[in-house]
Structure prediction request, 412 residues.
Amino acid sequence: MLRSSCLICASSVEPFISFGKMPIANGFLTAAQLADEYFYELDVVFCPTCGMVQLGHLVEPEKMFHENYAFFSSTSTRMAKHFEQFADSVAAVLSPRSDPLVVEIGSNDGIMLRHFAERGTRHLGVEPSKNVAEIASSRGVRTISRFFDEDLAREILEQHGPADAVLGANVMCHIANIHSVVAGVKRLLKPEGVLVFEDPYLGDIVELTSYDQIYDEHVFYFSVRSLSALFAMHDLEIVDVQRQPVHGGSMRYVVGHEGARVASARVVRQTAKEAELGLGEARTFVDLRERIERSRGMLRQALDSLRAGGNRVVGYGATSKSTTVINYCGITAEHLEFISDTTPIKQGKRSPGAHIPVRPYAEFQRQYPDYALLFAWNHSQEILAKEGDFMRQGGRFLVYVPEVHLVDSDQA
Prediction:
């Protein structure tokens, strides 16, 4: 049943789009798993009271984050550099402090915390996906495989003492019981401590029509306004915001105990910008739904036309985001010969829902297709620079954000 109340403030919510039945976004399947695939309804709702955009149906965390989780942050050189810079900015703030403690929620394979480990800084990663946590531990990053909540925060506090910084990257928006998480952060932080986290930004989703950011793991679609409402319930406040170019548009938030720090002027400016974008108004999301529907029609028309013309088309990047696009737009193995991906755990499997084969990147290179549907569009700068040979030989990328269009060597 579609949820009728907000996960943040318990007010009535307003549904604005349904993507229909959807599989687990990162649930790439072996042949033996195809018959038992799990599906749920992907609906999105808006809370006019606190402004939070959120999923209307929730998937149990254990179905998404487990011992076979198929996302490893370190596979992208661009993201590795981004997290190094993230870590450096936090380390610079902590450098005057004596024996600081850094805790990261959803630390993945240790891509960010390793920079603290290399400095000898006390640190702890909390990563619920066991296979990913084990890789982090093997790299010298102290990691526990648990879901972070208020109970775990108490345990960390007892064993390690209070934290100078709690970090998160593309994880806070995943957590449905976010009140327990925020309560845990409040309990764990020193009086002068900060929570620093970043997630895909609602304003960018609205401006770019990047509906592929919507899938099971992303329970929430944050704005400064909606997060301010959440943190105020726990006597915390946003003291700074910083736009980030990663993941198709993200926002980094710095949060402290209420009254402990002076808020940056950027918080005021971004809140005003959100009012201009209409992020607190239901009509904005009705308009977004209409643009999403138009985008779906244009992409499907383009793929049908390429197939009718006898062109070879493959997918580029077996991303979580691709699951939403493939299943919402009705893309099948008749449209895409296969999806190319560099992640070994995904290779040889089938895509969620549509069951399109996922093959190693070497297959893409061995015989270039005529067109590549760029699912990993948020890494387009890195990819287009890498794939000059493909485009020089006449290959073209089909891109659907911010609108459906083709990219060739002249435009790269």
The two ends are 45 Å apart (CA to CA). The chain has a mean pLDDT of 93.
